[in-house]
Amino acid sequence: MSKPKTWQNGLHDLADRSWNVEAIRMRLNNLRQNGFDPQILDWKALQAKRSEMLDRVQRRAEEYEYLTHSCAKGSALALMEAFGLGNWAIIRAMSPFPGFGMTGGICGGVTGSLIALGLFFGSDDPEDYEGTGRTMTAAREFIARFKDELGTIMCPELQEDVIFGRYMDPRASQENFLAFQKAQGYEKCALPPGVGARVAAEVILTGYGHEQ
User: Fold this and answer.
1) pLDDT-derived band of residue 48, with 50, 70 and 90 as boundaries?
2) Cβ-defined contacts of 28-31 (< 8 Å, 24+)
3) Which of 38, 45, 172, 207 is the most buried (most CB within 10 A)?
4) Could you read off the pLDDT of 133-147 as tens digits, one per residue?
5) Phi/psi at 46 (nearest 5 deg)?
């Protein structure tokens, strides 16, 4: 069985989940008030609780997508929270990224995760070519692993082949948007950012470990 098909149980879970909106909103409000505190990562502790940490990142990316209605913000928020990266201006900048402005481009679960990888592996120095190369290596690994999990990084193909059985294109018309909502679009579209954030966290943990 291909990996995309193995995620069907995850879709059913998302469709049937009772979302604790107030708890999710309170967590995000706390982040808005206090920011994303930079963290000194304890590699040994992260390795000891690796599975638990990955499950939490995936779950929070799903929750943040559901609340924000943005796969890009969902994946970025979960990773920025977990690793103490970035600021809220970055989240605001993620607003047009789902499906590249919902034009049928790259999934926001990919772009949001790539932003987090850039924040982690990149550098404030624009001439730090080693930092750029390090980030590109992480991005290539992430994209290959995301494709391995879900088959593609493109929004229409994810909707057609994994999530709905067809491309919903919710921004094309009011009719499409209503059909997307009826098909539990915000619930089911939490799948790619959850997968993306989990894979990106794995890349970060592996990359961090190699440097220790």
Assistant:
1) confident
2) 28/64, 28/67, 28/77, 31/77, 31/81, 31/88
3) 207
4) 999 999 999 999 999
5) -65, -40
Identify the residue whose tokens are 């206090």.
34
Q: Is the pLDDT of residue 40 over 80?
A: no
Q: How far apart are CA 85 and CA 210, in angstroms?
A: 20
| C-alpha to C-alpha distance for 133 and 111, rounded to whole angstroms | 18
Digit-coded pLDDT (tens) for 159-174: 999 999 999 999 999 9
- The Cβ-side half-sphere exposure at 142, using a 13 Å CA radius, reads 32
Is the separation of the CB atoms in 138 and 121 below 8 Å?
yes
Instruction: Write down the H helix ranges in the chain.
Output: 3-6, 8-16, 21-34, 43-48, 50-68, 71-83, 88-93, 99-102, 108-121, 129-150, 155-158, 174-182, 185-188, 191-210
Instruction: Tell me which DSSP letter residue 124 carries.
Output: S
Q: What is the pLDDT of residues 164-205, one digit of tens each?
A: 999 999 999 999 999 999 999 999 999 999 999 999 999 999
Q: Look-up: residue for tokens 């990224």?
A: 97
| Nearest C-alpha neighbor of 74 from the set 120, 113, 101 | 113
Average pLDDT on 16-32 reads 95
97 within 8 A of 111, measured Cβ to Cβ: yes
| Spatial separation of the C-alpha atoms in residues 190 and 109, rounded to whole Å | 9
